[in-house]
Design brief:
The chain has 203 residues and is mainly alpha-helical. It has helices at 2-15, 33-39, 46-87, 100-123, 139-148, 150-154, 161-179, 186-200. α3 (46-87) runs parallel beside α5, α4 runs antiparallel to α5 (139-148) and α5 (139-148) runs antiparallel to α7 (161-179).
């Protein structure tokens, strides 16, 4: 449809005819959006078609960023699960934490997990998740688990606690931008790709 839009706008430019429409878009039938877009695409003015072109480009740029953030988040889950399996730790059990603030963090994570489970069950949606509760956690919760257990369980994977926490916080910001359909720069998208390779090496 975008290619067709560009074709129409070029045709109109070459023929010297206007691309504006005398009929407000709101008066057109919405019974078949696809047909409206294909048949009446030439009704769009230059500015609108430029926006469509930008959206198409930006969405293409962001597709890879989404896929890589998806991989990073699940690589973190696998890493945490592997550590639990090899050490016998149970990171979501608040009884394993002595600090009151740490207990509250884990308690809030578990409350979030339970809420998501209840909401998904009530909605009737079939969510494809792993059996482990880690698959119901947020990205920020994964960061918290690594941060709270860094010295005992995760120091062998990363150089410094401050570095990995800072990196995860940065990625969390990127993830939120992606989730809310905000655009990331080339530098930010490249950073995500490098982060993915780094975390993959920890498995």
């Amino acid at each position: 449809k975008l290619r067709m839009a560009n074709y129409y706008i070029e045709e109109k430019k070459q023929s010297g005819t206007s691309t504006s429409t005398s009929e407000p878009p709101s008066t057109k039938s919405s019974s078949n959006i696809s047909n409206v877009l294909e048949i009446n695409i030439s009704d769009f003015d230059d500015a609108t078609i430029e926006v469509i072109g930008n959206i198409n480009k930006f969405s293409g740029d962001m597709k890879q960023a989404y896929e890589s953030m998806y991989k990073i988040e699940n690589v973190l889950r696998i890493l945490i699960k592997n550590v639990e399996a090899t050490t016998g730790a149970s990171f979501l059990n608040e009884d394993n934490y002595s600090d009151v603030d740490d207990k509250n963090v884990i308690r809030n994570i578990n409350a979030f997990i339970n809420r998501i489970k209840i909401e998904e069950k009530a909605s009737g949606l079939i969510s494809i998740r792993g059996k482990h509760d880690l698959y119901y956690t947020s990205f920020n919760a994964l960061k918290n688990i690594i941060e709270l257990n860094y010295e005992r369980y995760f120091s062998g994977f990363f150089v410094k606690k401050e570095h990995v926490v800072s990196e995860l916080e940065r990625l969390y910001t990127y993830r939120n931008n992606i989730a809310h359909n905000s655009y990331l720069s080339d530098t930010e998208r490249n950073h995500i790709e490098l982060a993915l390779q780094f975390f993959l090496k920890q498995l």
